[in-house]
Predict the structure.
Amino acid sequence: MKIWTSEHVFNHPWETVATAAWRKYPNPHNPAVIGTDVVERKVVDGVLHTHRLVSSIWYFPKWAQALIGSAKVCYAREHSEVDPAAKNMILRTINLTFCRHIAVNETLNYVPHPSDPSKTLLKQEAVVTVKGVPLNHYMEDLLANKISNNAGKGRQAMEWVIKKLNDEVKDLTRSTDEILNSTKRSIDDIASSAKKSMDDISQKAKKSFDDIQNLRSGNFSEF
Amino acid sequence: MNSIGEACNDLKRDYDACFNTWFSEYFLKGHTNDSMCAPLFKVYQECVKRAMKDQQIDFHEVEKNLLGTEQERKPPQKPS
């Protein structure tokens, strides 16, 4: 079992981030997501509960397909709760297709930042469990790295959607120069924070790629 | 964004548009009554459930613990 966690701050209020979360797909940073559908949705005691089916394409190296199965379009089930009074949005995703060998449980939690209500804190956690597949720990590391990469793209996607929403608002209210300048400053902040995250993630991805190469060339001294 | 069922795309688009408006203009402002988009949702949901049945996607598969039981699916056997 492998646990991966991360925290990230968006320089936008919680309502903006929660709205953007529903409009996340499609976006250029997550081209693998090819479909989302709401299967169930209702408000219970002021909290919005939603069940969604998310379809995406995962590309695994051929040698891994023999272990996992040749499923290329993968389905995941996402259960989310939005509590507008408590300003808490939580999304839990578990993949369906891989359940025979691998379970990926991912949780995203958006709350207002504890020390700055104009910002939003995202806490992300993924638990990967692999059973009945050789090289369990290796597969778990591979998936955790993949999740880490996707998480970075997910955050970029959110920024992209938020910017799109902000642009729509600007058009609607005929923006002034002041609004334009402050948006540009926000985007500069976001860009530098995203770049730092991407650098971290690129290093981890490279290490994981090197591990795959070692395994392919039969260099087992590392394992 | 597409639906898993191609026939549901238009229904999905109409429902999503209604939902996005309801979510930011009503729900987040404290109006938790969800009847505004209910008719659109009903039609869209029926289409999705039909598509899932056609594509044999079992949404509740994840709730069953399949690993280690007879229902656990094995990797495909390589032809020798």
